[in-house]
Amino acid sequence: MNQEQIAPVIREIKEALPEKKEEELKTELDRYLRYGIDPQEAKKAIIRKFGGTPASFASMGEKKLGELKGGEMNVDLTVRCLSSREREQKTQNGDRILITGLIADDTMIRRFVSWEGQMLDKGTTYLIRGASAKTFRGEVEINLGPYTKVEEAPEGTLSRLDISKLPRFGNLQELKLKDVRPGMGNIQVTAKVMDLEKRTIETDKGKKSIFDGMLADDTKRVRFTSWSEFGYDIGDVLTIRGAYVKDWRGIPQINFDERAEIKKEEEIDFDIMKTPHLFAEDLVNAGATDIEITGTIIEIRDGSGLIFRCPECNRSLLNGNCALHGQQSGVADLRTKVVMDDGTGSLFAVLNTEITENVLGRKVSECVERYQDDDQRIVQELSQILLGRDYVMRGNVIRDDFGPTVLPAQMTKHSSDDMEEARSLLDEMEVI
């Protein structure tokens, strides 16, 4: 048996013997398997050996899909298959063909995954013995493992099943875009499509069309990817149910596929003409796309000014060396690393070439001629221009282990009157 076949047996033993370490149970199971003992018999022997009872490994009996919360082992189900397809999954032991799809009973529709090639045919009703339930992206799904038995149910079973009246999702989270966080699953959002692009990617099964774009509501803007056909246009307001959230450098990105439900809303719109304005305290837990922040620049960090980049990978050089490509004749560039404070907290920001050129009023080539022999002069000049002054930055905010970083595409001076109004607003918020 390989590790993937052993894993569900170990999980069942661990469920019955939670106080035992998993490594100890693996060693014990391996000892039985080496002597050719059936895994299910080995499981029972191990549970008995360490003080378990027959109830520990007995079937949980017949369950309804709507009853499952995730984490149940060895359950029996009576379900109808609504859809089924093969897909390739990369694992530690090489590529495997999985069967995935949807099943239903009279309580709910749920996704299933067959790890051992048990093919369920669409429209057929089955008796499934020894399945398990786990939580994936916030939704309970049914797993068919190496010891799951699948057989067709007697004729007439679930004959009155009405799929149209069944809930598709379990614990669906209805969220505003500002509350979306990487790692969330099974979410519902209502938002307007702000931009849309179709592109083609290469997969193990050949070329596939996906759709990238931007969603916006009255709280935030978030990028999205649709992994299935997307028959909607820029300007449409959509309610998307059953999406999940991935992470790109701390920026939440909403993803969904053919399992999601999408409804075009005719009566809903948002006041989203203005770029959302966020505070530092809003960006502690998640990055953001296309937002504005306003604050005072309080520090110019090391690594600012005239730098040289590797012509191969664009990384900045240290003493003429690239971490990947060794000694290089670098390409000159400008950047400014700053810390901005907006009254709710501080944010690190990296000003790109264009913004730094605008701040200095000089192009990169002029700065090479003027400052190459004394690169500290350019940092001093940047400090004189920026420190203690108020600016509005518009762009993206990424996150890593060190916290949020603002990558502005635009930066403009902020009038003192507006800044005083912002500070007054913050004071009022603190009082409230």
Secondary structure blueprint with pairings:
Blueprint: H1 3-16, H2 22-34, H3 39-49, H4 54-57, E1 61-62, E2 75-91, E3 94-104, E4 109-114, E5 125-136, E6 139-144, E7 149-152, E8 173-174, E9 187-203, E10 206-216, E11 221-226, E12 237-248, E13 251-256, E14 261-265, E15 288-300, E16 305-309, E17 321-322, E18 326-327, E19 331-341, E20 346-351, H5 353-360, H6 364-371, H7 375-386, E21 390-400, E22 403-413, H8 416-431
Parallel strand pairs: 1-2, 4-6, 8-9, 11-13, 20-22
Antiparallel strand pairs: 2-3, 2-5, 3-4, 5-6, 5-7, 9-10, 9-12, 10-11, 12-13, 12-14, 15-19, 15-21, 16-19, 17-18, 19-20, 21-22
Write down the CATH topology of the largest domain.
OB fold (Dihydrolipoamide Acetyltransferase, E2P)
Rg is 29 Å
H/I helix tally? 8
Q: State the share of residues found in helices, binned by percent.
A: 10-25%
Question: Could you say how many structural domains there are in total?
Answer: 4
Structural class of the secondary structure composition?
alpha+beta
**Overall geometric form:** elongated
Main sheet summary: 5 strands, mixed, barrel
Q: What is the number of strand segments?
A: 22
Low-confidence stretches: none
Q: Biggest sheet: strands side by side, in what order?
A: 2-3-4-6-5
Helix-strand sequence: HHHHEEEEEEEEEEEEEEEEEEEEHHHEEH
**Fourth-level CATH superfamily of the largest domain:** Nucleic acid-binding proteins
Question: What is the annotated CATH architecture of the largest domain?
Answer: Beta Barrel
Task: Walk me through what this model shows.
The chain has 432 residues and is α+β, with helices and mostly antiparallel strands. It folds into four domains: 55 residues, no CATH class; 105 residues, OB fold (Dihydrolipoamide Acetyltransferase, E2P), CATH 2.40.50; 93 residues, OB fold (Dihydrolipoamide Acetyltransferase, E2P) (Beta Barrel); 152 residues, OB fold (Dihydrolipoamide Acetyltransferase, E2P) (Beta Barrel), CATH 2.40.50. Helices cover 20% and strands 41% of the residues. The chain has a five-stranded mixed β-barrel with strand order 2-3-4-6-5. Helix 1 crosses helix 2. The longest helix is centred in the last third of the chain and has 16 residues. The radius of gyration is 29 Å and the shape is elongated.
